[in-house]
Amino acid sequence: MLDKSFIYGNVMVGGIKNKSWPRMGSKTINFPLSPPELVRDKLSINNMPSLPKWIANGTEVLFSLMMHPVTVSQIEYLDDDLKRVRFSGDLHSASYVPGQVIEFRINDTEFRHYTPAYYDQEQGVCDVLFYLHDYGPGSQWAERLQVGDTTKLMGPGGKMRFQPEHQYHFIFGDESSLGLCSMLKSAADAQHQEYLCLLELAQAHCHWPNLINLQADVVTKSNQSPAQAAVQVLRDMQGNLWETWQRATFYLTGRAKSVQAVRQALIKKGVGAKQIITFPYWADGKTGL
Fold it and tell me: pLDDT for 72-92, tens place per residue?
């Protein structure tokens, strides 16, 4: 039986032992086994897949048990470049842990992953906050979405997961992280736990947390100095404040260089590596979201 973990990138085309790819023309490929743990760990910006169309078609056939047909049922523009889309469908077999990602096939050859801002398995609804930066095919696909459009939701899965055993949750990211922040805030509130969001945003987007009822410390992002202002915020956390938050789970997402800088700053302040969960959503010079 197929493991229902999220499949991504080159692992997506390598998940079944002694199983041949469905024949398309004269092409047949054999695949080695990828254990579920490896599949989940391979979720990364570096594996953002661009596949030949015949292989992309084959993945939908091979992993059809993890593909959930959904329809765009609601759309709301919270700002010119911030679009909330609700997908509705039968999600009873798609259990979700806050923080996990889902994936969509956005064209004939490419897939993209997103973190839901809201997910209700029983009601069959999933909300995604799309940052419409127009820098890649994912953003362009999201901008074209209209009520009534149909697609397939793949997943959920990934290593980014809410840690309910911890009382404190520290979330770092940027515009691409708003969905994660919203989801982890809801999870922390439901557990009567504490969260702290630190976001680096473009000057024009500094009001975005207010649009989704999110309390966050906001610093202005710098293209030349990734996370410089955010790192300074961490350095300024001293005394009782830091004694409390240094025990937190740290969820770091967004720009890869910023994630790296914040992680290094946390390690220098004595945070254990096992407390830090990283998931870069995009990287300079790579076609991403």
Answer: 999 999 999 999 999 999 999
pLDDT, tens digit, for every residue of 139-197? 999 999 999 999 999 989 999 999 999 999 999 999 999 999 999 999 999 999 999 99
Q: What is the pTM of this model?
A: 0.81
For residue 14 the two structure tokens come to 């390598």
Residue 261 phi, psi (nearest 5): -65, -40
Q: Which residue spans of the chain are classified as CATH 2.40.30.10?
A: 9-157
231 touches 259 (CB < 8 A) = no
Concatenating the DSSP letter of every residue in 226-259 gives TTHHHHHHHHH--HHHHHHHTTSEEEEEEEHHHH
Return the half-sphere exposure (C-beta side, CA atoms, 13 A cut-off) of residue 35: 2
CATH classification code of 9-157: 2.40.30.10
Compute, in degrees rounded to 10, the torsion defined by CA atoms 222, 228, 230, 231. Answer: 170
Cα 175 to Cα 205: distance, rounded to the nearest angstrom: 8
pLDDT tens digits, residue range 255-280? 999 999 999 999 999 999 999 999 99
3-class state of residue 149 by DSSP: coil
Q: What is the pLDDT of residue 56?
A: 60
Residue ranges of the chain that CATH labels 3.40.50.80: 168-282
Instruction: Tell the residue number behind the tokens 């993209």, with chain if given.
Output: 112
Q: What is the CATH number of domain 168-282?
A: 3.40.50.80
Cβ of 63: how many Cβ atoms within 10 Å?
A: 18
